[in-house]
Amino acid sequence: MGFIGETVDSIKSIKIRQVLTQTVTLGMIVTSALIIWKALMCVTGTESPVVVVLSGSMEPGFKRGDILFLHMTQEPIRAGEIVVYNVDGRDIPIVHRVIKVHERRNTGDVDVLTKGDYNKDDDIGLYADGQIWLNRHHIMGRAVGFFPYVGWVTITMTEKPIIKYILIGALGLLVITSKDRQHTEKKAGRWWGSGS
Amino acid sequence: MHSFGYRANALLTFAVTILAFICAIASFSDNFSNQTPSAQIQILNINWFQKQPHGNDEVSLTLNITADLQSLFTWNTKQVFAFVAAEYETSKNALNQVSLWDAIIPEKEHAKFWIQISNKYRFIDQGHNLRGKNFNLTLHWHVMPKTGKMFADKIVMSGYRLPNAYR
Is the ipTM of this complex over 0.95? Predict the structure, then answer.
């Protein structure tokens, strides 16, 4: 009960300048995270430098909840590469391995067929109706690195949005109250100091 | 400054940083492994070789694949994905790569193997250029780590040729 009492007290004693400072600090934190993300996008050449594996179609190599680091260069697409692609009309990217490549002379256009390691069939069933090959513009990046388990945070937050709100609420509360407690401790210290 | 919240926060940040650092080092250590894989592929039989109703050539082969990929495994390796692709060129396409067979090798003990199979995936051309075609059989491998950077490489074996006539 003491913690709650303190929290309520500190919220009551908020001053305008403090609120503004805290808002600016929070804004700075959010913007620097955004800057880092955009810089990563530039360096890796893809729109999403990190993706979370959502299905088990690449097991046992990539399990649901792992994250993949992507990179995209202009180099030609070759068999064996693990690519992330978007099918026209669907917004969830798919991470599978290239098993067939047919590259045209002169233009460099390429027809690609992919398949998940764990799947029995190739991906033709996943492509748009009537589509039997992927082209370069469908492919968003190649997987170059991998990290296990970390993606579960994103999966839980997407599938149970309530957790996202709880987390943001708790963070907000922490930011507001913690700075205040420092301020109140300083004020209290002044009182005691001057009393002696 | 000494509340439970601050302490937990500092501890968590430190733990995550250390974990990330260890994973980066584990991945980096993979650069130092000495890799000497070897492989041989024989075509035992051309099972059939036809032109499909759409006009594309298709061939079915029986392959004999011998490989020793044990040196690719490091302590940071989760599995090695190996596949055999037929590579050839045609007048329309500068490069065609068709995967004929693949396997997931989960442990070092399974990495030295001998297998005789017919092609797992259909060998279909874009067109009808396969008669008398010279092609390479390439064994590719993709080392998937427990954490970090993935490595891929291949052995190219050339000198294979398809028959001049359908059968």
Answer: no
| Percentage, residues of chain A above pLDDT 70 | 84
A196 confidence band (pLDDT: 50, 70, 90): very low
Distance CA A83, CA A96 (A): 6
In angstroms, what separates the C-alpha of B44 from chain A's closest C-alpha? Answer: 23
Q: Do A105 and B81 touch (CB under 8 A)?
A: no
* Residue A121 among the catalytic residues: no
CATH topology classification for A50-148: Umud Fragment, subunit A (2.10.109)
- Is B44 found in the same domain as B19? no
What's the rounded Cα separation, in Å, for the pair B22 and B28? 10
* Cross-chain residue pair A103–B95, CB shorter than 8 Å: yes
Indicate if B21 and B86 belong to the same structural domain. no
Query: Tell me: the pLDDT tens digits for B121-149?
Result: 999 888 888 888 899 999 999 998 888 88
Q: Which residue of A62, A83, A102, A135 to mutate against B (max B Cβ within 10 Å)?
A: A102
Can you read off the two tokens belonging to residue B126?
């874009």
